[in-house]
Amino acid sequence: MPELAEAREAIVAAGQRLDRFGWVPATAGNISVRLRDGTVAITRSGGHKGFLDADGVIRVGLDGRSLREGDRPSAETGLHCGIYRRFPEAGAVLHGHSVPVTVLSRLAGESIRLEGYELLKAFPGLATHAAAVELPVFDNDQDIGRLQDAVETRWGGAASVLPGYLLRGHGIYVWGADMPQALMRLEAVEFMLRCELEARRLS
Ligand SMILES: CSC[C@@H](O)[C@@H](O)C(=O)COP(=O)(O)O
Ligand SMILES: [Zn+2]
Of 29, 65, 148, 155, which residue has the fewest beta carbons closer than 10 angstroms? Predict the structure, then answer.
């Protein structure tokens, strides 16, 4: 796990990358990394994630509380910390608001099925395109504590959980062991969801 300075660099670079893809419009999105001391580096609330600097990344405890008075972490810090608490192997969390995620989550029920894509191999434990996963979709909620409760209820005690979910009409959360893996997974899911959207247009 990185120290704060390294995490800040990774988060700033990730914000620029998400922005290049158009996944963090306006001030949408938030990004975090688990630090070596067990705390979490996360983006401040309200800034544009494509124009972050080191000061735009602050520290919170696993309970989501800011470690420095006056620092206001992402409004969705509770979702990041929920992921870190439940999955000890999670080292980085990404949240974006792409068009495919927003449109498809509005059309979906409780999940979106991704099947037959070569890029499914980006998910842990999948070694072939001949597979299917159900990407969970949760109703959006401005009460982040209540939303995190709904997510935890769906995860239950399952040993193996897909490292991502959608919030209806809102965005996507994806995590990985570190930032490169989280980015790889997010790009894979976004690619497959773009394909799903294109396929719907053609049908
Ligand atoms: C531009 S409104 C988006 C926010 O409500 C939220 O969903 C979001 O992704 C960013 O919130 P933030 O508090 O900056 O981390
Ligand atoms: Zn959001």
Answer: 65
* Overall domain count for the chain: 1
In SS3 terms, 184-203 reads as HHHHHHHHHHHHHHHHHHHC
**Interface predicted TM-score (ipTM):** 0.98
145: three-class secondary structure by DSSP: helix
Ligand 1 mutation pick, 71, 74, 102, max ligand atoms within 8 A of CB: 74
Which amino acid belongs to residue 76? E
- Whether this prediction's pTM lies above 0.95 is answered by yes
Q: What does the alpha-carbon distance between residue 179 and residue 31 come to, in Å, rounded to a whole number?
A: 10
Separation CA 51–CA 55 (nearest Å): 11
pLDDT tens profile 82-129: 999 999 999 999 999 999 999 999 999 999 999 999 999 999 999 999
- Tell me, using a 6 A CB cutoff, whether residue 72 lines ligand 1: no
Quick check: CB of 26 below 6 Å from ligand 1?
A: yes
